[in-house]
Amino acid sequence: MAEPVIILVEPQLAENIGAAARAMLNCGLNSLRLVQPRPDWPSERARNTSAGAESVLDAAGVFRSIADATGDLQRVFAMSGRVRDLVKLVLTPPQAVAEIRAAIAGGERVGVLFGPERAGLLNDDVALVDAVIAVPLNPAFHSLNLAQAVLILAYEWLKADDRTPPLVLQTGDSAVAGKAHLMSFLTRLEAELDDCGFLRNADKRPGMVQNIRAMFGRAQLTDQEIRTLHGILTELVTKRLRE
Amino acid sequence: MAEPVIILVEPQLAENIGAAARAMLNCGLNSLRLVQPRPDWPSERARNTSAGAESVLDAAGVFRSIADATGDLQRVFAMSGRVRDLVKLVLTPPQAVAEIRAAIAGGERVGVLFGPERAGLLNDDVALVDAVIAVPLNPAFHSLNLAQAVLILAYEWLKADDRTPPLVLQTGDSAVAGKAHLMSFLTRLEAELDDCGFLRNADKRPGMVQNIRAMFGRAQLTDQEIRTLHGILTELVTKRLRE
User: Which of residues 34-63 of A touch B (CB under 8 A)?
Assistant: First the structure.
């Protein structure tokens, strides 16, 4: 699928351009444009902070104006934290990404403007965009670093790709044990606990057994882990018999 | 509501500590702990890159070990991009935030570990955590900057707070116009277009009118904007009549 173009308007710091490129590539975005970057360009500092995302920097287009940088785009958004006296649709990042994906699916070329570090985008810059993207942040401290703003958009872009894996227990080579395997361990454990007297109070026994089962049952133990527990139990019992 | 503690383990660069503090405060998080920070501490560089989030840095606790930094916490997560040979539940950031919010609602104290910039967390560091948090990123370029990793967690924390405003058109003092107001403008526009001959092709007229209506209808025009359009139309017609 085509992707949105990230457009940095008059970025002041090479570090931020590099960090933005890194964040983009982290999230699978490759297309960067710079409008009148303040640092000398290309920039060695930007390369360093990109931490390996040179492909993004090397391919970045440099433009003289927002108009030049957006001329071939059909849909343009502006990421901005400031409330403006303009009539604009204001979208959260996930809402914006839904719009961007729909536009791209419809064959449009899409870009997102990010303003300079201190001043942000001017009203003139924003007047022609289709919508403003605003991140709902701490109202008392809402100024995002430029590369952080790029990351939030890129991260939402990636999230909306539906490749987010489902909730998963990472278990390596061993699979989560079937309940029968778990139960055979618990039965043995309870027998041992009966044997050693831990469960001797008949009134309390049912509740205690439940609690033990719940504890081990919650852990999503793998076959290997249950084998390990069997081993531990064997060793503990053997040690008691030896004493 | 209480909040999770962000724990940076052996952070190497003061800039990243400052940027992490900024990202935290952007998202309403205040509680930072540092385990054996490499830069001299407190750090002027960290202050500078925090861009005003000194409150987070000033209150940050410094600890000698992960054990010390997590001793008072009931639930600890580790943000990590590396696949490990440990049996751990792996959560995406939104999944983790749901767990964190549930734990905090249940009265638990929660922390999230972030490893050093280059090496990340060691298996030893992660062995005792309740779950690993992994961001599904570009598999070919998945190493996140430390402060960016903190931002993603903090951003998801904030998002889950349900204060995200609904889709909203920011209209300033003027409200989106009622359909009647819009229709009166369109009717007038169409009359003018009939008058000037633009709609003279009777076969094509219905389709052309539909397209015009769709175009203006889609724009969510405000009352003020419709008054402006009326004014524009008046001026255009008057100019034509003058010529």
Answer: 51-53
The pair phi, psi for residue B126, each rounded to 5°, is -90, -15
- CA dist., res. A226 & res. A181, Å (int): 8
Query: Which pairing describes strands B168-170 and A88-91: parallel, antiparallel, or unpaired?
Result: antiparallel
Contact A22 B225 (CB under 8 A): no
DSSP lists the bridge partners of residue A33 as A7, A61
Q: Is the ipTM of this complex over 0.85?
A: no
| Residues B185/B193, Cβ–Cβ less than 8 Å | no
Each residue's pLDDT tens digit, A108-160: 889 999 999 988 898 778 877 888 899 989 989 999 999 999 999 999 999 99
Contact B90 A144 (CB under 8 A): no
**Chain B residues inside the 8 Å CB shell of A163:** 136
- In the predicted model, is pLDDT for residue A239 greater than 60? no
Closest of A131, A57, A36, A122 to residue A89, by C-alpha: A131
H helical segments located in A43-111: 44-50, 54-58, 66-70, 93-105
Q: How many Å separate Cα B155 from the centre of its chain?
A: 6
Length of chain B counted residue by residue: 243
Q: What is the pLDDT of residues A7-48, one digit of tens each?
A: 999 999 999 999 999 999 999 999 999 999 999 999 999 999
First to last CA, chain B: 69
**Contact at 8 Å (CB) between B166 and B122?**
no
Nearest residue, CB atoms, A28 vs list B23, B138, B148: B138
Is the separation of the CB atoms in B62 and B11 below 8 Å?
no
Whether residue A21 contacts residue A56, with contact meaning beta carbons closer than 8 Å, is answered with yes
* Inter-chain touch A148–B147, beta carbons under 8 Å: yes
CATH tag, A5-160? 3.40.1280.10
Token pair of B223, please?
């009352």
